[in-house]
Write a structure and sequence with these properties.
five-stranded antiparallel β-sheet, 4 domains, Uridine Diphospho-n-acetylenolpyruvylglucosamine Reductase, domain 2, Uridine Diphospho-n-acetylenolpyruvylglucosamine Reductase, domain 3, Alpha-Beta Plaits, FAD, 446 residues, alpha+beta, oxidoreductase, 14 helices, 19 strands
């Protein structure tokens, strides 16, 4: 049921007609009813919207620029979309302390450009950094191939400002790296999908930009060769930034002429002497294991190579396509990544689907983009069910990061329940007892 005109008029009176758009196209990502989108420009305006929602019984669906707007279950209550994309900008950059504080709607690409002028960077590399906001990266916990070297989002967050469901504002952590007082409340909100509070500011620790970055793409004739080289590399004293196994469709993002069935992308970031020594050893090992060099890129070209891989992931608010696209994220043991990528290829081939897939041979995170004509929805859902079984059989997970509602109605978004679900529900009850924020979107219907 859509929101009544009276409730919308009250919301418009609070913020102004230029801040409330009545029919947001992205509302269809979470439910079938039309819903308004509200553009907040300050923390105080977010508090007003949250308090209005509490008074009227309306739920709030926070979002940044919408890169991952389709993540999670549908919302089965009346809701308003609260956009933070206008809350952008760097508030404080302490270059000497290697910390930065930004408004939650700041895109990671904007932050990267700002930090690069001081020779620093935030080591988070989720897909589509121009659309991924600081707050969005925190609440989704999204990472990319360089997770191998730099870790996860929670490793870089040192402070947050959050508006809770009752309109109160809290600060977690601080603005210095050595913040050890009390519980680490930051970790409650990282990966919470906006169900516990609305993040308004993020403070991150930083690193100096490495002097040299290179990206190597090696092709292989079979997944066994990828497995052997990856294991040899990861068992060595070398310190790659990423070891990303890729299927043939992922390799053809760089050139449609390449016909190899699989390969591996390896990144190094360090002093030149260290990078060159590691690259020389990798070349020797690749030859011994039967892999062939496609390219070795340096500096900005290397960064562009990783960008191309990330661009394979469609944005939730991209223009409609002629095909149905689903983004699935699998979690498995790092040593099983080539095996799981082989399974993606086998299943997609048998169901006559196109699948672009890659996975961290040292992290266990696999991401696959499956596409099918809209009339072949049955084949797409059948493939997803089979893949979920393959991932879950050894104790892993397969989550639908992005999928249209017609797919979510056939395939559960989250799959099997994770350990600690009881505790997650208790936290939700404590911080949002009325279920006002993103109700039902998270795992277990939280």
């Amino acid at each position: 049921m859509a929101l009544s005109d009276d409730r919308l008029e009250d919301l418009t009176a609070i913020l102004g007609s230029d801040r409330v758009h009545r029919n947001a196209p992205e509302a269809s990502l979470w439910g079938s009813s039309p819903a308004p989108v509200v553009f907040a420009e300050s923390e105080e305006e977010i508090q007003r919207v949250v308090r209005w929602a509490a008074e009227t019984g309306v739920s709030v669906v926070p979002r940044g620029r919408g890169a991952y707007a389709g993540y999670g279950n549908r919302v089965n209550r009346d809701f308003v979309i609260l956009s933070l994309e206008r809350m952008s900008g760097v508030l404080e950059h302490s270059a000497g302390d290697l910390t930065v504080t930004v408004r939650a709607g700041t895109s990671l690409a904007t932050l990267r450009d700002h930090l690069s002028r001081r020779g620093q960077f935030l080591p988070l590399d989720p897909p589509r950094p121009e659309m991924t906001t600081a707050g969005g990266a925190v609440v989704t916990g999204m990472t990319g191939p360089k997770r191998l070297k730099y870790g996860t989002v929670r490793d870089w967050v040192i402070g947050l400002r959050v508006v809770l469901a009752d309109g109160r504002v809290i600060r977690t952590g601080g603005k210095v790296v050595k913040n050890v007082a009390g519980y680490d409340m930051n970790k409650l909100f990282v990966g919470s999908l906006g169900t516990l509070g609305i993040i308004t500011e993020c403070t991150f620790k930083l690193r100096p930009v490495p002097p040299v970055e290179i990206l190597i793409l090696l092709e292989a004739d079979d997944w066994n060769a990828v497995q052997r080289l990856s294991r040899r590399l990861l068992d060595s004293p070398m310190e790659p930034a990423a070891v990303e196994a890729v299927n043939g469709e992922a390799m053809r993002l760089f050139s449609e002429a390449w016909q190899a069935p699989c390969g591996v992308m390896v990144g190094f970031e360090d002093e030149r002497s260290a990078v060159e020594a590691q690259w020389d050893r990798l070349k020797s090992w690749a030859t011994e294991e039967g892999l062939r060099l496609h390219f070795a890129l340096e500096g900005g070209d290397a960064a562009e190579g990783w960008r191309v891989l990330g661009e394979a992931v469609p944005g939730a608010l991209d223009p409609p396509e002629s095909e149905t696209a689903v983004v699935a994220k699998g979690i498995t043991l790092p040593d099983r990544v080539p095996e799981m990528l082989r399974a993606v290829d086998e299943v997609s081939s048998e169901e006559d689907l196109r699948a672009i897939a890659h996975g961290g041979a040292g992290t266990g995170v696999v991401r696959a983009v499956l596409r099918a004509p809209k009339e072949r929805l049955n084949a797409l859902t059948a493939a997803l069910k089979r893949l979920r079984g393959r991932f879950e059989e050894p104790g892993g997970y397969l989550v639908l990061e992005q999928a249209p509602l017609e797919v979510k109605e056939r395939i559960p978004v989250w799959g099997r329940s994770p350990g600690g679900l009881f505790m997650m529900r208790r936290l939700k009850e404590r911080l949002d007892p009325d279920g006002r924020l993103n109700p039902g979107r998270f795992v277990g219907g939280i």
